[in-house]
Amino acid sequence: MKRDSMVFQLISSLGTKFFVLIGSFVISVIIARILGPEGKGIVTSIFVIPNLLVSLADLGVRQATAFFVGKRIYDVSKIYSSILFVWVLTSFLSIVFTIIYYNFFMSDQYSWSLLLIPLFSIPILLLNKYNEGMLLGFQQIVFINAKQIINFLTHFILVFILIVIFNLRIQGAALSIMISGFTAVAFSTLILRKFVKLKKPESKIAFEVIKKGITYAIALFILNLNYKIDIVFLEWFGGPKDIGIYSVGVTLSELIWQVPSAMGMVLFSKSANSKSTQEATNRSTRLLRFSWPPILFCSVILWYTAPIFVSVLYGEEFIYSASVIRILLPGVVAMVVFKILNADLAGRGKPLFALKVYFFSLFINVILNAILIPLLGIIGAAIASSISYSLGAIIFGSLYLKNNNLSARKILFLNKEDKAILGDLLMKIKRKTWRHK
């Protein structure tokens, strides 16, 4: 029964990812076609610092909340009330810091009417993370998927209205991100009202959540900084046009992560509720064995078709994005190992395992970006990121194997039980197909 439940959640998550993925392509193409490389770069640039700050100001509350709710350590209503108190505090501090950053580094380039949009997005992004942590703890993956679909649909409609119809261009693109995030938060808040009732927040619970979550927050911040540091360097040494072209390459290459991300969300929820370490380890390694062959196949196809893909969808202005894709793909594929195995460890309350590895990876990325971007521009940024991702994934995978007494064969090749599970699943699909006929 548990296996069927997990299979359903995985299929639901993958279906949602696929639907959102196709739609996101359309949104990305519309924005790129209308705004061009420079406009696309500006939208990417103004949201970088708010997104990085959110990953730090999040304080790991999303993961810690899922852990505490999953283990039923405290009353779930008191947990939610306490994290809402934390949300108010972290939102205020993040907004203040972002205002300072904008004032010193961006206000001379962009108007405050534009910068206020990502600024006001901060509390929305934070509450979205906190609500998702509660839903993960309750294992309500279906509602999380529904939230993502609502977010996408709202984003799509707003892009069409604000950019295509009203021609608001950069402001329209930024507003569509903020408002769609708000609708997703409103939906998740309404859903949570079925599971929790607001009570007086308790400082003890808030402290314990932050204490548990701070390790998640630091690990997530280092990881996100590793993903975004190339954009920061490009902003210093390049310009909006370079960022626009590079961001398209990054977005398309990182589509490979959609499958492991969907799996990782389910895996985190399951690991937070696992009764034993062995159960969690078996689940995560099996998912990795199932996922990497199709991911590798898709990456090879993307490598060969990247120039055609980019020119047809985005236009010749973005053709250099194809080179970015090809350079990033080896590192992106390697990161699949980290995406899946780290979700297991994070769900078991071990975020520091990743921190040790990716602090080193970030250091390498910073050094390489500082050297290569002034020399090679966006190509240098792609080389730096790909090397950093690959090194981090290899070291993380090796440490995971050593920590769990596993061999590389155990996570790379299907065993008899895996084949039996796949055979059973195919038989169920076949039976359902015949019934419909």
Helix content: over 70%
Task: Estimate what percentage of residues fall within beta strands.
Answer: under 5%
Ends distance: 26 Å
Order of helices and strands: HHHHHHHHHHHHHHH
Would you mind describing this structure in some detail?
The structure is a single chain. The protein is mainly α and 437 residues long. The protein has one domain (2-406). It has helices at residues 2-57, 61-71, 76-105, 112-137, 141-165, 169-192, 203-237, 240-253, 258-272, 277-314, 321-347, 352-376, 378-403, 408-412, 416-436. The longest helix has 56 residues, at 2-57. 46% of the residues are buried. InterPro entries: Poly_Biosynth_Transport, Polysacc_synth. It is a multi-pass membrane protein. It is found in: Cell membrane.
List keywords for this structure.
mainly alpha; 86% helix; transmembrane helix
Give a short summary of the structure:
By secondary structure, the protein is mainly α. Helices cover about 85% and strands about 0% of the residues.
